Every structure is written in C-alpha cells, then in structure tokens.
Amino acid sequence: MMQDQITKVVNSAAPKTPNSEIELTKPRFDDAKLLEIVHEMENRRKNWMKDYKTKLDLNDVLEIRNPQSVIEFIPEIIENMRKEELIHMYPENFLD
C-alpha cells in the first residue's frame, strides 16, 4: 500500500513529455573554439610563470615544482614578515 502511494506521488510530480521520458540535452561545444581557449590559457600561464620567476631567488626557482614549498606566496610572506617585524621590535634603549 505504501509503495502504491509513493508511485502515485512520483508519477504525479513527473513532468509530462510526449514519450514519458525526460530528454536531457548536452551542451554543444565548438571544438575549434575550445582549442583556442586552451591555447590562450596555456600562453597566459607561461607568460605569468616567466614574469613570476624573474621576481624569485634562484633557490626558489629551483623549488617551484615542489608543492610543499609554497613558492607562489613567498613575496607576500616576506612582505608581511617585514611589516610585522617593525611592529614588534624592541626600542633602541631597551637594555640600557
């Protein structure tokens, strides 16, 4: 009895289509356009990497493929450390 009630609810909630089936349409992509986008993104990545490597030390450039070294954040980390260092420095006459 419960199964019959569930079936009625499901059937009444289902959309009415000519074949009583839901037709799903896949989005169509133009292969040439997709290939153009892939090439553009690859060129942007290469240019970004070339520009980025010029700002790093040699040791950091050698470690750029190591995900644990977090190379992409080094400039921000160093900048933040320098700001924080100024805030937390002892006064010049601290030990006098």
The overall pLDDT average reads 75
Q: Distance between the terminal alpha carbons, to the nearest Å?
A: 91 Å
Strand content: under 5%
Largest sheet: none
* Overall 3D form: elongated
SSE-based structural type: mainly alpha
Order of helices and strands: HHHH
State the helicity in percent bands: 55-70%
- The helix count comes to 4
Task: Give an overview of the whole structure.
The longest helix has 23 residues, at 31-53. This protein has a domain at 28-90. The mean pLDDT is 75. It is built from 4 helices and no strands. By secondary structure, it is an all-alpha fold.
List keywords for this structure.
96 residues; mainly alpha; elongated
Q: What secondary-structure arrangement, pairings included, does this model have?
A:
Blueprint: H1 2-13, H2 31-53, H3 58-62, H4 74-87
Short description:
This protein is an all-alpha fold and 96 residues long. The protein contains four helices and no strands.
